[in-house]
Amino acid sequence: MGGQSRVYPGDSSSPLYSSSARRSLFLRVGAAFFAGFVICLAVVARYASSRSFSAFTALLPTDVGTPEWHQYPPAEPTNGFPSVFPSNVGYPGRTQAGAEPGVAATAPAYPLHSNVAHLVPPTRFSKDNTKVTTKDFNIFRSWGGLSPWYSIPRGKFGVDSSPEAPDTCNITGVHLLHRHGARYPGGYSSTSGPSGFASKLNKNAENVTVTGPLSFLNDWTYKLGSEGLTPFGRSQLFDLGVSMRMRYGFLLKNFSETNTLPVFRTESQARMLDSAHNFALGFFGYPLEGQYQQEITIEAKGFNNTLAPFRSCANSDNPNRAFRGVPRANAWIEVYLRDTVPRLQQYLDGFDLDVQDIYAMQTLCAFETVALGYSKFCELFTEKEWEGFDYSYDINYWYNVAWGSPLGRAEGIGYVQELVSRLTQTPIETHNTSTNATLHNAVTFPLGHSLYVDATHETVVLNVLTALNLSSFAAMGQLPTDHIPKRRTFRSTELAPFATNVQFQLLSCSTEPDPQIRVIVNDGVVPLANLNGCQDHPDGMCSIHAFVDAQKENIRSTDWNFVCNANWTIPDGWETTTGYPV
After folding, report:
1. How many Cβ atoms from other residues are within 10 Å of residue 83's Cβ?
2. What is the pTM of this model?
């Protein structure tokens, strides 16, 4: 081999790779590549033109929008041995209960509920050239009845006072009415709402392409259940229970002294029962046995129930009487989403979006967030569009169940009767509304207790506020459908969010000759001066005697049978701000 050099394949010093050979090889390879590229372009272009798609945009996978549900717990777990894992094995160690908390009675300030744990807001919103982003914008407070509850700022409802007991007063009792926690969607048809949009997307998946901000739909599936409480909803009620124990735990001493247990009420519907149990776990702690009694009323047609009065009110099924808000809300949706449709349509080919599709996408933002913790749908919209979404819920609630509804007052009057019965410790004599005579007895409807807790729906909360004639919320009058009024006294995100709560706070004050009552909605003190006999009090108080007299007049002037069972008609142009048809 001597000094002969070795030549390896790929070595540029080889005679095989002379400069002329390299040039020839480069030209041949380049020509072949270019020809192949042109042929590929022609094939793709022909395919794309036949489908009316962009040549470089992929089709949606066919499983886009399909339901993705996870069933837990498993029906028959292979390692389920309950006898091996008892809930109590004894040996608890030494414990001693301390004094009951009473923040509402003893602390110099009130613990306000301001944060939304477990939920993640969008990192950005769509740009809105007509409005500068505001620092105080909070998307969690822009979903109407789908918003999580939060403490209303002091003075927001017109009373410059907070929920803790005024300096000269002691809290003697509390009646709490609250809504269930955040839930999965329900009440939509198969072609509307979040599930309807998912179905529409799935049916058109073979023809649809998405780009830009809608690109996330490429692997989006429908993950929402139906009607039931979400994990965040459970936490809301647990936290509400803890909060109420911290504020009013001292009232339990009355039960210890009388050797009795509190009776809390809820309904048979799954999310209602789950909410009540989670509230109780927060309020009492585990285990619940022996600490209270949970009454479960039946929510179904044929059963009177003040916590679900719509089940026994026949006219609540009549669209012209019970759902007057729907066409009005739809009219508003056409206004505020008019420019949103073409803005989002440019990122979706394959079917035409309409305002109901866009509205469903906004609804998906809210439901996905309270169910899954985060939603990409939220960042598709501007702050202005979220304000429009929030107002759409106001319109629906106002005309369907509150002061603008002909049924609102009657559907809430049964609960007002029960409240008066408890305040006066006098049984209801005549059951001619939604009250249940069978359950109105000393065991299931006890009188003389210092603490009552009732779980219901947000629609019923609004029914009750209407029936109580708390007219300051109706001061703005009718809700227009072509713009958002600057002065808004009725806002569903303040009155009817998930876990909304109403406290009827009873007080004994050294500066007042009679026992007093206050109405507190989501920590906001409500003025009672419009009620006959109630004065304009700086802390929003009214004597229980005057309050009861005003409510007895509301009861006398409300004809349940006429409102719920008579065949009456609503004249064209008729409106109300009292929640009554006449």
Report:
1. 5
2. 0.87
